[in-house]
């Protein structure tokens, strides 16, 4: 019996793999290229859009961690359908799904994912087959490590980001999400949605204070427009920058992006996200 971790070489899956392995669990990395996985870690090549490929891996496993990679909606929808079919056929012990920042737990929010979206299709389909838990973060602190954000903070003392200074966000790191995923994979008593992130939400100046303490120089926060941010990240992301800009336009139309207390990891699991200063230290930024 083992746990299957999708995307085990990526930003989300890698810390989940490390957390489970450190705790002594048997873990198999489900990836496109097994050669990219560290030596000593069992790995298997899978096609996330092929139910046949996935079902053979899911059989007789304790749990599966899965998230939909960024990409075209059509590709994500095909991947969601493949995972659903594979789970229904193989019946793993449980499945933990990360929303990767999409909002699925605030039905009154304009940012709530549509009922027919790939992520909601995945959640509804898998939940109907096996015990399922959903991890719902908001924005990742790792976004602040993009060169176009971190370099000006270091060299100019300015943390620029496409949100108003007073805008509260339930920021979390991939490490925080991994802590919650590992707990949910190994604790079968918890199902439903667990939101991950700081409560109360952190503002731009809150982030600047943590960066100031860690970097040993005064850092100020400067709000920029989503379009200006798009100009900065397009050389890095190419066409993939466009949906990022659209996301921040949508976020700017709201008063904040925070999780509720009732389904928070703090309330449901007793797990709080790392302070930003600790996160910076843990990553040796």
UniProtKB/TrEMBL annotation:
Record's keyword annotation contains RNA-binding: no
Going by the UniProt record, its keywords in alphabetical order are:
NADP
Would you say which domain of life the source belongs to? Bacteria
Q: Which Gene3D superfamilies match?
A: NAD(P)-binding Rossmann-like Domain
Q: Where is the NmrA-like domain?
A: 5-236
Record InterPro entries: NAD(P)-bd_dom_sf, NmrA-like, NmrA-like_oxidored
- Family of the protein in this entry: Belongs to the NmrA-type oxidoreductase family.
Its name, as the record gives it, is NADH-flavin reductase
Q: Which organism is it from?
A: Actinomyces viscosus
Lineage of source species: Bacteria, Bacillati, Actinomycetota, Actinomycetes, Actinomycetales
């Amino acid at each position: 019996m083992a746990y299957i971790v999708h995307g085990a070489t990526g930003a989300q899956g890698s810390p989940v793999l490390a957390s489970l392995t450190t705790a002594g669990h048997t873990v198999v990395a489900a990836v496109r290229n097994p050669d990219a996985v560290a030596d000593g870690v069992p790995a298997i090549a899978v096609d996330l859009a092929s139910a046949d490929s996935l079902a053979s891996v899911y059989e007789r496993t304790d749990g599966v961690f899965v998230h939909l990679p960024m990409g075209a909606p059509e590709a994500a929808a095909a991947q969601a359908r493949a995972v659903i079919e594979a789970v229904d056929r193989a019946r793993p012990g449980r499945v933990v799904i990360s929303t990767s920042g999409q909002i699925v737990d605030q039905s009154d929010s304009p940012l709530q994912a549509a009922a027919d979206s790939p992520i909601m299709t995945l959640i509804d389909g898998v939940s109907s087959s096996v015990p399922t838990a959903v991890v719902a973060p908001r924005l990742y602190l790792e976004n602040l490590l993009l060169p176009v954000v971190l370099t000006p903070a270091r060299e100019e003392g300015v943390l620029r980001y496409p949100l108003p200074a007073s805008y509260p966000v339930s920021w979390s790191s991939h490490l925080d999400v991994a802590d919650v995923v590992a707990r949910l994979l190994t604790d079968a008593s918890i199902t439903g949605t667990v939101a991950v992130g700081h409560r109360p939400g952190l503002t731009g100046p809150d982030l600047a204070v943590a960066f100031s303490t860690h970097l040993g120089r005064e850092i100020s926060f400067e709000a920029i427009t989503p379009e200006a941010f798009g100009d900065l990240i397009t050389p890095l992301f190419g066409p993939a920058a466009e949906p990022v800009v659209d996301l921040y336009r949508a976020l700017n139309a709201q008063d904040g992006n925070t999780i509720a207390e009732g389904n928070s990891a703090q309330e449901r699991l007793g797990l709080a996200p790392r302070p930003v200063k600790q996160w910076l230290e843990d990553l040796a930024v």
